From TrEMBL:
WD repeats lie at residues 39-79, 80-128, 319-359. SMART domains: WD40 (SM00320). This is WD repeat-containing protein 41. Non-catalytic component of the C9orf72-SMCR8 complex, a complex that has guanine nucleotide exchange factor (GEF) activity and regulates autophagy. The C9orf72-SMCR8 complex promotes the exchange of GDP to GTP, converting inactive GDP-bound RAB8A and RAB39B into their active GTP-bound form, thereby promoting autophagosome maturation. As part of the C9orf72-SMCR8 complex, stimulates RAB8A and RAB11A GTPase activity in vitro, however WDR42 is shown not be an essential complex component for this function. Its main location: cytoplasm. Component of the C9orf72-SMCR8 complex, at least composed of C9orf72, SMCR8 and WDR41. The complex is formed of two protomers, each individually consisting of one molecule each of C9orf72, SMCR8 and WDR41. The protomers homodimerize via an interaction between C9orf72 (via C-terminus) and SMCR8 (via N-terminus). Within each protomer SMCR8 (via DENN domain) acts as a bridging protein between WDR41 (via C-terminus and N-terminus) and C9orf72 (via C-terminus). The C9orf72-SMCR8 complex associates with the ULK1/ATG1 kinase complex. It comes from Callithrix jacchus. It is found in: Cytoplasm. SUPFAM superfamilies: WD40 repeat-like (SSF50978). It holds the Pfam family Beta-prop_WDR41.
Amino acid sequence: MLRWLIGGGREPQGLAEKSPLQTIGEEQTQNPYTELLVLKAHHDIVRFLVELDDYRFASAGDDGIIFVWNAQTGEKLLELNGHTQKITAIITFPSLESCEEKRQLILTASADRTVIVWDSDTGRQVQRISCFQSTVKCLTVLQRLDVWLSGGNDLCVWNRKLDLLCKTSYLSDTGISALVEIPKNCVVAAAGKELIIFRLVAPTEVSLEWDILEVKRLLDHQDNILSLINVNDLSFVTGSHIGELIIWDALDWTVQAYERNFWDPSPQLDTQQEIKLCQKSNDISIHHFTCDEENVFAAVGRGLYVYNLQMKRVIACQKTAHDSNVLHIAKLPNRQLISCSEDGSVRIWELREKQQLAAEPVPTGFFNMWGFGRVNKQAHQPVKKQQENATSYSLELIGDLIGHSSSVEVFLYFEDHGLVTCSADHLIILWKNGERESRLRSLRLFQKLEENGDLHLAL
């Protein structure tokens, strides 16, 4: 019923209708999101959501407009107009802790080759930067140095006053698609198949100028890098179009672990089905990562994989978590994971462990069946049978949110206000915890009765 009210549900694509997609009934007892608010303002694909504070977020997309929303009520607070083409990146630039005036800025980049800086409280356009020779594809803030970086065909460093401090020479036609900060005043940039390490040199008594130096290029990936995030202070992880997952040391930039040998730990494996899943390269593309202290969670094609950092192997997976490619994932408290997909759905998973006797060899996986990339030394060596009990893990579906009629691009999680999703259907949906909203409504009702003096009469 819900999918028809909102405007349509997801439709199977390609071979999706034949895949063993895990389903869940209408009685989703562990799914708290039983209420929703539909927000209509954009008139094109909504690709970005960014949290401003505990109760506000901003949205942006292909219409070139940025909206600021109240995450609790769904009220539209601000509309920011200034770009003439689609938004390509958005970040926030918080005030320094030592600064008395707390003013958070919003930075947006666009295909119109401009970056605009906005005041998040008033919506005022602080400044417009239009000196770029190419589209800025990514933005990042180095809070400790109080600077921000823009990445396109070159890499530029800016201060809070929006002065250009330094820039690299032309890097490549592909351009920089992702940036993360690593130790020693360094950043790592993904540009096509390459990772480029840059070091920022701050002014000193000897040199009063900023500088940015290319330190090293890492060439271990064999295809374009689609995802790049920090795991912790000592490591970062990258994922490529052909399913390469590499964990890097953030201090010396060496490879800590390499994985293409994703496998399904369950004993029932259909080889023909695995081959079908591998026939298209985007079926194994790593679109997004999230992580916690123990694991890296990877969106691989239509599936979800949990890679344990200590054991250096995949410990759980759902090969077909969605009907289409998974675009974004996030780790929640209580060992829960949320994923969204091109199929228009948002799904909630729980990582569960169970004790079982490991009696069969672990399959070597279907990625290496096709000869992609390097093969681990143990790839063709079956794991020896274990006599003792071994812990196995699984990703169990506990919630399925069907409200969007097209690809869900990204989402935000608010601990107190629920889940926010945006989509190619131009809509934003606030998914609310039904029990919590019911309690809040009751509380507001009692407060109103008390203010009007009607509470004692009712009692």
